[in-house]
Fold this protein.
Amino acid sequence: IRELPEGCWSFEDQLDDDSHSPGPVPLKVTLSIRHRPKPHMVFDFTGSSPQRIGAVNVVYEALFATVAYVLKATIDPELWSNAAFERVVQIVVPEGSVLNPRPPAAVGGRGTTCQRLADLLLGAMAQVAPERVCACGHGTTSINIHGHDPSRRRPFICIDGIGGGMGGREGHDGMDAVQIHTNNIPNLPVEILESEYPLRVERFELVPDSGGAGRFRGGLGTRKDFRMLADIGYIAHADRHEFAPWPLLGGKEGRMGMHLRNPGRPDEKRLPSKGGPFDFKAGEVLRCQSAGAGGYGDPAQRDPQSLAIDLADGKITEKAARESYPRDLVEEALRRAEIL
């Protein structure tokens, strides 16, 4: 902590909603760093939303764990996790807020809020030490498909976590189609999913142009289409459908995620990032698309070879490249992409 500058910095972010009440769920933190009487940090969450009806409220222990994660990731990834942490870090959070609710508050969806908390804290740390921080990532896209399986004659619940973009950071592009921050959800292989549930995965791919432009590009989101082979229910557990993942140091925003019923059909309908259950009939399609991530640094400084590889791999289209990068850089990248 002594290596960081003294001062006070604030950052604000928000969840799309709480699945029950319309409008965003504001989150705010003020970070203070002091070197005397001993090095310490204070995270003050005053100004965050009051506790909500929806299950996005966070218990204090989860708040503390998310703060610890961000500090370990930015200050020293090899830092031991022990009680000494509590002697140098102070958390101020008003009782009755979404981050410290009074019982009996609904807290089952707190994982989504913890992901947004990680973004919030990284946004504050980016003002202190941007070289240690990645731009904003995709957050959460977790789905719950459930019902009765007529062919196997049993009830089922399929919970699948869909990876998205990791933010660009100093020296590296963001990774594509990964879980980030407080999520630790494994990929559910299509072959296993289809052998266990009345579902068919018709599309599972990266989303071109979803990563924000920058000297170091944001990671790409993913698109997964489920065709229902039985009548089912679906519960959404995601975010970043209303507010784009933010960039750092002159980069561009990542593309937002979305949930669609029957994409490409006349009855196509956009579904919210949270809530349900939504009823699907056999034969209908659910598209879950995670967000990309923000870019890091001035796009004009991107290495033309890196842009050429993205063009050759289809991670960025020529149209998007021309909209996000200088003309001479794009022309050079296109020339190199032809050789690749």
About this structure: The chain has seven helices and 13 strands. The mean pLDDT is 95. Residues 33 and 41 are 5 Å apart (CA to CA).
